[in-house]
Design brief:
Structural class: mainly alpha
Strand content: under 5%
Helix content: over 70%
Order of helices and strands: EHHEHHHHHHHHHH
Number of helices: 12
C-alpha cells in the first residue's frame, strides 16, 4: 500500500466545512503558482507576466469569497485541508517541473489548472445541501469556466498580438540557444567524430566485442568531454544562451547518443551483420542532423545534407583506411 494513502479522505466523505476549507487552500495555492509563473517570466516576457498577475488576483477574489462564506457558517477557524489529504483530488505539478519549460507549456498548464478547478467546484456544488454554499460553489465553477474568456481579456489588455508574437519568437530563440544548438553540436560530434575510431577498430580486428568496447569508451568519453566543455565555455550571462547546466546536459547526452547509435549494433556477434546495421544507423543519424539544421537553424536542407554527408563520409573513409591498412 502507498504510504499515507490509507489516511486520505474520499471527497464524497467530506462535509461542507471541509470542502470549503479545501477550496480555500486550493485557491491560495493556485494564486501562488500564478504569481510564481509571473515572476519566472517577468524579465523576458513582462506582458505575459502581467496576465498571470491578473489571474492570481482573480484567485484571491475567489479565496476571499470562500472565507467570507466559511466564517458566516462555521466561524473563523479554518481547518488545514490540502489536496494531498483527499483521495483522487487533482494535484498540481511541482513548480520546478513547469517553470523551466517553454512559455507555451506554462500557458497550457495554466489552462489545465482552470479546468481542474472548474470540475472540482461543479462536483462540490452538486453534493452540497446548503443553498448559500451551493450557490457560491456553482458561481465559482462558472467563474473558472469563464477564466478562459477572462484570460483572453487579460491577454488582449496586456498581450496584444504583436507583443505575443515577439514573446513567442524570443521563447523559440531561447529554446534554440539553450537546447537545440548544444544538442545539435553534441549529436554532430558524437555521430561524426566517433566514426573513425569505431570503424577503424571494426575493420582492423573484425571483432564485434572489441569494437563495442571501443565504441562505448569513445561515446561516453566524448559525451563527458563535450558536456563539460559546453558548460564551462559560457555562463550564459552575457551571451543570453541560458543555463550552462542545461546546455552542458544537452551537449553531453546528445554526444553520447550520437556515438552509441553506431556502437551498439556490435552487440550482434556476426561482424558483417553488425557492420551493415551500423552503416544504416549512421545514415539515419546524418539525416537527423540535416533535418535539425533545416528545422531549427534554417539551413537549406540540401546544403545541410551536403555538409553532413561530406563530413561523415570523410571521417568514415579515414577510419576504414586506417583500420583496413
Amino acid at each position: 500500500m502507498i504510504p499515507g494513502f490509507a489516511q486520505r479522505r474520499r471527497f464524497s466523505d467530506l462535509s461542507d466545512k471541509e470542502v470549503l476549507a479545501l477550496a480555500i487552500s486550493s485557491e491560495e495555492d493556485d494564486a501562488r503558482i500564478y504569481r510564481s509563473y509571473g515572476e519566472r517570466l517577468r524579465a523576458d516576457y513582462p506582458d505575459t507576466a502581467a496576465v498571470f498577475d491578473g489571474m492570481a488576483e482573480e484567485e484571491d477574489i475567489h479565496r476571499r469569497r470562500l472565507i467570507d462564506l466559511f466564517e458566516a457558517r462555521f466561524g473563523k477557524v479554518i481547518p488545514l485541508i490540502r489536496r494531498e489529504h483527499v483521495s483522487g483530488y487533482y494535484a498540481r505539478r511541482p513548480i520546478w517541473l513547469i517553470e523551466n519549460l517553454g512559455i507555451e507549456r506554462i500557458r497550457a498548464e495554466a489552462e489545465a489548472m482552470e479546468q481542474d478547478a472548474q470540475r472540482f467546484y461543479e462536483k462540490a456544488a452538486e453534493r452540497s445541501q446548503d443553498p448559500a454554499t451551493r450557490k457560491l460553489l456553482g458561481d465559482l465553477a462558472a467563474a473558472e469556466a469563464g477564466h478562459t474568456k477572462r484570460a483572453g481579456q487579460l491577454e488582449r489588455a496586456h498581450l496584444p498580438e504583436d507583443t505575443r508574437n515577439e514573446e513567442d519568437q524570443l521563447a523559440h530563440r531561447q529554446f534554440v540557444l539553450t537546447w537545440v544548438q548544444p544538442g545539435l553540436a553534441g549529436l554532430m560530434d558524437g555521430s561524426v567524430s566517433t566514426l573513425a575510431p569505431i570503424f577503424a577498430t571494426a575493420f582492423a580486428t573484425h571483432n564485434t566485442h572489441t569494437t563495442l568496447l571501443v565504441g562505448l569508451a569513445a561515446s561516453v568519453g566524448a559525451g563527458i568531454s563535450m558536456g563539460f566543455t559546453e558548460a564551462a565555455s559560457d555562463d550564459g550571462e552575457l551571451s543570453g544562451r541560458g543555463s550552462p547546466f542545461k546546455r552542458g546536459l544537452a551537449a553531453g547526452v546528445m554526444t553520447t547518443l550520437g556515438g552509441l547509435g553506431h556502437a551498439l549494433p556490435y552487440l550482434i556477434p556476426d561482424f558483417w551483420t553488425a557492420t551493415f546495421i551500423a552503416f544504416a544507423v549512421v545514415f539515419v543519424e546524418l539525416w537527423a542532423i540535416a533535418w535539425i539544421q533545416n528545422r531549427f537553424m534554417e539551413t537549406p536542407f540540401l546544403r545541410a545534407t551536403f555538409q553532413v554527408v561530406l563530413g561523415g563520409a570523410l571521417v568514415f573513409a579515414a577510419g576504414a583506411l586506417i583500420g583496413g591498412g
